[in-house]
Design goal:
The protein is of the alpha/beta class. α9 runs antiparallel to α10.
Length: 270
């Protein structure tokens, strides 16, 4: 169920956004957009500062479309946004929000990107509709059937150019990156990425944080930890991240995560 749309005025965007949100059952993203008029203020600013007219933006785990809308406004008519969201309720709002803002440069797919084509299950959070997961959780969640598609084949059939890639898939990031390896390598001289790194979720999904790190290391790109509290980027080496991942192996119930900004070595993020 959705409530009346809200109008968001995001600093630096240049135009208001109209968004339909989930009801009060979604206590995180929809609730904070309704209360604060913005979601992840620093990451919002970081995204806008590192997107340009004509860019191709790919949103993997688009939820109800907040970053999809931001990107579509920023890249303009000469740019392109491709968004993936497997959950039916989220996808319906995503489609509504793209239509309400009359964004003709967006393509939407009700799919989960992965490193193979197969059917899967999505385990649904009852109170955080941005925390649905492709693996069973200890809290005995209800599940629904979804379609998983090999990212390189599906996205590669749409575009061979990516300028900005956002991956927020609650632990499935390794499998998303693994499917997109060739596309990422082909764009690594200009690509910017925001990738969630949650060692607990990656283990539950069937891989390990170091597996994800190995994929990122293979790109030859540089890493920054996104500091949501201090509103800045903290440079990090591969060894820094490996040590942190290893430390959480000793805390099997720790669901801690960080978001990484990944960019070419020669790129100076705004």
């Amino acid at each position: 169920m959705k409530n009346e749309p809200v109008t968001l005025t995001i600093a630096g965007l240049g135009q208001p956004l109209r968004m339909s949100l989930h009801s009060a059952d979604d206590q995180i993203i929809s609730a904070r957009l309704r209360r604060d008029g913005i979601w992840e203020a620093y990451e919002t600013a970081l995204t806008l500062a590192n997107l340009h007219a004509g860019d191709v933006y790919v949103d993997v785990g688009a939820n109800i479309g907040y970053y999809t809308l931001l990107a579509a406004c920023r890249v303009g008519a000469s740019g392109r946004v491709i968004a993936y969201e497997p959950d039916g309720g989220n996808f319906a709002l995503l489609a509504d929000n793209v239509a309400a803002n009359r964004l003709g440069n967006v393509e939407l797919f009700q799919l989960a990107l992965y490193d193979q084509d197969r059917d899967g299950l999505l385990y649904l959070s009852p109170d955080n509709f941005g925390d649905h997961r492709v693996y069973a959780s200890p809290d005995a969640r209800q599940s629904c059937s979804i379609t998983l598609k090999h990212g390189g084949r599906h996205l590669g059939a749409l575009t061979q150019r990516i300028d900005f890639l956002k991956i927020d898939t609650q632990g499935a990031e390794y499998f998303v990156l693994n499917g997109l390896q060739q596309l990422i390598a082909a764009n690594s001289d200009h690509l910017r990425m925001i990738v969630e790194l949650c060692p607990w979720g990656i283990r539950k999904a069937g891989a390990h944080g170091r597996d994800l790190l190995a994929l990122l290391d293979a790109t030859g790109m540089q890493y920054f930890i996104i500091d949501h509290i201090g509103h800045g980027l903290i440079p990090a080496t591969s060894q820094d991240l490996a040590d942190w991942i290893d430390s959480l192996d000793n805390e099997p119930d720790n669901e801690g995560f960080i978001n990484l900004f990944v960019c070419p070595q020669a790129y100076a993020p705004a």
